[in-house]
Structures are given as C-alpha cells and as structure tokens.
C-alpha cells in the first residue's frame, strides 16, 4: 500500500463518519448535544491530518507524524465518546442539570471554561437520542474512533511505499 492511499482511506473514513452525522442531524432531525459536537471536531481532526498526509505524500518521518496526529485526534474522540456513554448510563438523579447551549457558552466564557463545562456534560448529553442494534450512537462513535486509532498506529509502525494513490 502506498502512503497516499493509506491517508486517502483515513480521510474517506473520517469524512464518511461526518457525512453520516450530518445526515442524522439534517435528514433525521437528531440534534447534536455539545459532546456530539466535540466528537465531530475530533473526527474532523482525524480527517484533516489524513487529508494533509494524502496531499503531501510524505516519506517515513512525515507519515509517522501525520499518523500520530490522526491517532491523537482519534484517541481524544474516543475519550469524549466514552465520557458521553458514561453520562448516558448514570442514574437519573445523578445526571447533571441542563446547561446553556454551546453557542452561548462560546460567547460568554473563555475557551478553557467552555471545554470544562462541556466535558462535564449535562442532561442533553445523557439522553439516548439514537441507537443501532441496541448500542447508542456515541458508543458506535467510540468504537469507530478506536478503529481509526488502530489504523493510525499502522501508519506509525507499518511499511508503505512512497508512490501515487
């Protein structure tokens, strides 16, 4: 496999996941909670680093750097998804109260405080809005992030040729 085709596959996987998320939002009416939006940002990070790797077509050192950045984005996304799943499984009396929307938080708080507030979660994040085969969408997203992370690890430790895709 060439370096470019490897990064193209990673980009298409991330872009496909984001396209599905937007399909669920705009065609199916599943509005994302703040943690869902953060997961989308992490998925966009995976896609961006893979797209840059595809465009650059780097040698071994560059491939490892882009793969490590994609892996970091995927691991962060998996951690956010795990937090989301944890909130969904809290007893009702332990779920944090609903807070203001993400747009409002960004307008009135410093970025570090926005991150802290969103990662604490609230009742909108604890609600199961969609599931497939009895598994919530954030759990599926976490699984997908882990698959992307393992794929990125292949980019760090694997052997590739430096040809065209």
From TrEMBL:
Record bears the keyword Repeat: no
A Pfam family hit: DsbB
Periplasmic topological domain residue ranges: 24-41
UniProt subcellular location: Cell inner membrane; Cell membrane
Record membrane topology: Multi-pass membrane protein
InterPro entries to which the protein is assigned, alphabetical: DiS_bond_form_DsbB/BdbC (IPR003752), Disulphide_bond_form_DsbB (IPR022920), DsbB (IPR050183), DsbB-like_sf (IPR023380)
Highest taxon listed in the record's lineage: Bacteria
Keywords: Cell inner membrane, Cell membrane, Chaperone, Disulfide bond, Electron transport, Membrane, Oxidoreductase, Redox-active center, Transmembrane, Transmembrane helix, Transport
Transmembrane residue ranges: 37-54, 66-86, 139-160
Disulfide bonds: 33-36
Cytoplasmic compartment spans: 1-6, 59-64, 159-165
Family statement: Belongs to the DsbB family.
Function recorded in the entry: Required for disulfide bond formation in some periplasmic proteins. Acts by oxidizing the DsbA protein.
Name of the molecule in the record: Disulfide bond formation protein B
Species, as recorded: Salinisphaera dokdonensis CL-ES53
Species classification: Bacteria, Pseudomonadati, Pseudomonadota, Gammaproteobacteria, Salinisphaerales
